[in-house]
Amino acid sequence: LLSRMLAALASLLVGGSTAYLPLAPAVRVCTHQRPAVASPTRTASAAMGVLDQVSEAIRGGGEQASDSKSDPKTAAFTAANDRTVMAYTERVARINELEDEIEALEDEALAAKTAEFRKRLAAGETEEELLEEAFAVVREAAWRTLDLRHYDVQLVGAMALNDGKLAQMGTGEGKTLVATGAVYLNALRGKGAMVVTVNDYLARRDAEGMGQVYAFLGLSVGLVQSGSDTAARREAYSSDVTYVTNSELGFDYLRDNLAVTAEEVVLRRELNYCVVDEGDSVLIDEARVPLIISGKTEAPVDKFGAASKLAAVLERGIHYDVFEKEQTVSLTDKGTRDCEKALAVGDLYEPTNPWASYVSNALKAKELFVKERSYLVQGGEAVIIDEFSGRVMEGRRWGDGLHQAVEAKEGLTVQPETEVVASVTYQSLFRRFRKLSSMSGTALSEAEEFATIYGLDVTDVPPVLPSLRSDIPDSVFKTTRGKSNAALAELLSLRRSGRPILVGTTSVEASQVFSDKLTELGVKHEVLSAAPEAAQREAEVVAQAGREGSVTISTNMAGRGTDILLGGNPAFMARLHLRTAFAAAAGLSGVTPPRDGFFPRAVSEEAEAAVGRAAARFAQSRAAAAADDDAEGHERAELAALDELLAVAASSAAVFEESVEDEAREALEAVGEEFAEELAPEKERVLQAGGLHVI
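-> structure tokens emitted (695 positions)
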């Protein structure tokens, strides 16, 4: 009955067509997208409202059934959360009442609302008084620029963010779109609003995508990337809305506090409003380690080599003990005596000739810091792997001589030791914002820490529809071999049905071991890890992880930032096709073409001709702009311009007829339609097989 109801509602939503929401299982794939029609219609809006009401009724029954079984603490949270969500839902109803009025506005009148809101704020009104109308404006702007319309529960999430709370929303519920309402409202005073993400790719993706909404409404959008220079950073932070990673923000804050002239400062004097994406990762996991800016010292480097050779011959359990949980080692009495003999010193802890720290770091490098898991060796350097994202951390070094110990262990050139010049914790940094909010898919388990450390109360935002994912209980094995064999058997069994499979591992080394086993068995697969060759193809690999029979092995899957759509992601594939063609036409070497067989079909002559025309126009436009660019950073600037062009082409934002953006959009639509048509039967087969399976 539920499936029939949802199918009927979906049919109403798309005006009789079932291309977007054919069956209940397909709804989970794209939870916040409305069909691409010329303009919003009241019928579609009504269907959305009915859909929200049905899902609310479904959720209500389930929640009532589970409340009686929960412990008192959980029951108290649930009751308080229900009251909060109910209060927000009442405001959503008033926002919906404004929809017809806002929908009737021309583009210029809708964009002029921003200036009107700013005048009203200057006259004494508050953001709370503007919230309902502002959210209605953002919802309409998102529809006109991105073909996306906020669900009612997404507006609930935006209200939680505006109130300085942490909004917990499940994977696929559209957190990126949720943030637009709160960010727009808090940016209206011109004091800046930041969206903090976990990596450069996500920051750029969201700035290009959601930035279309803010730009349509007359707000400026800035983007800070790891390679941005001081002038670009200052301009980005002075924008109304700024997208930046947590690490770049932290180091910019430290550098500002070390600046000796005003010209070196990039951040605003007052930190106004911030939304932290993946809050559990940034505010809890990564917050254990402070951000540090260091300077070189005159400490001797030869001691690291001697200590490394000594550590290699010392025996665990005899000369030293390892405490893995505390990430430390301790010399035994015998170990201390033998080290003193080997080094020909009377005391390892002699202040004038200390050796204890060198030996301790050498033992840590030997036992606790494992190659391919904690770090990679590339270009003659030891590069740290971020344990949370699985990515390499260029330019980062461990402190207190530990990085030098790792370099000595690997036989690399030992760099001079460093000392701390400035440091800050994420706890200290983010509490400096006037208003802090966050989003996460898994925050309830750390709710007490969020409230105690950051003053963030967690609001559990209900999903737009009941989750159709099946969570199978964990299986625990005595040995790694038993666990790996079971995972391999499960993979091979499910693969026969054509289901795409995603395997998550905790290290590059574990990914490689699993990959080697699949290679021996002749199973075609992709590996996503911190290894440079894999990182360059990251988005490409993730984009096809939902294709029929695909097997993807990924190190630490959180925050990858590319949608895994069942049957493949035709929109991303089309965009990648254009990006490759445009880069080749402009002579850009920084774009790696996808591997053979990535695209589902060869593009037709008509579509390829449209791509060629648009690529030629892009190359001409950049050739004219190149005369004004400095040689330094030219390639990076050209790639940024290309990505911005494709973001505009992929949106519904207004563009001039026969402009390069217009031709790029025409080419993108032509290629995307062909890929989508080719992948449609595959999507149905994947759905029938059971969807994506994650191990």
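Confidence is low (pLDDT under 50) at residues 10-47, 57-69.
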